[in-house]
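[audit] Reproducing an earlier prediction to check determinism. Same input, same settings, fresh worker. If the tokens differ from the archived copy the diff job will pick it up downstream; this log only records the rerun itself.
[audit] input (317 residues):
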Amino acid sequence: MTHELAAVGIDTFDEDVYRALLSRPAAVPGQLAVELGTSPARVTRALGRLHDRGLVGRLSGHRLRYAAIDPHHAVDALIRNRSAELDRVRAAATGLARLFEAAQHGDAEEVEIVQGSEALGRWFVRLQQEARDQVRTLDRPPYALTTTNPVEKTALEKGVVYRAVYAPEALEWPGVLDDIKHLVDRGEQARVLPGLRVKLALADHRLALMPLSLDLTDVRAAVIRPSALLDALVDYWQLCWHRATPLIGPAGTADEPAEQDKLLLSLLVSGLKDEAIARQLGWSVRTMRRRMSRLHEQLGASNRFQAGVIAAQRGWL
């Protein structure tokens, strides 16, 4: 048996039920089930679908009886509906074609994908050079090219505000903490946030650069221009910034701890292990723990969590 109604979206079994019903004035599902060699429940479900498509009607009365609708009217209606759907597809294709043509002519899109470490590095430099007021970053390893940022010093001197949120893992890389200290001395505002999983750079509210993975064997990044996606990334950065802990603060008063001890507190609340903290500060683990014990006494804290809370309340962090 051929099934011509498949072209208008009718299932082959449903068409068999419809053809069986066409051969009689009306029928109950059980009668059609016997003829088709299937269960009444399956036929009932098919009749329900056919009813929804306008091919059969349910007769009045207590018994569940159905009658076929004249195909000249019912099938014509299906054809008109399918034609309307195809017209919508054709209209959508026109819009897709415009997007394709814009891409071929180099028009800027809201999201652009760049590939390779060098392309990522060039875009990071360009983003900072195009920033007018501020650059905001989420920073974590691995690093495709280098851990240093030679552009930032110049931008800071021009008055561009830099605010950076670092993952604790970044502080374990050789030289990173010293670089951050130098940048903070020049005006960068630095915080640390355990659990940071993405890397991101924002230039004002106009441009974002976000690596799509942390796999250095396949470096790809998205360049995002003004859009709802850019708005969401700015909001996400703000959330991270508010949750993060200041990493290195400005010089304090005489009753505050020394600069190295404040840095020790920042590293402790960032989640770094004792060995990593000692390595970054150039101390032995024993020296680091002795300094921490002295800070606990000064703060009246019994553990590092309490020390971080009290230090933050005093404005040391």
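[audit] rerun output stored. Observation attached for the diff report: The first strand starts at residue 56 and ends at 58.
[audit] end
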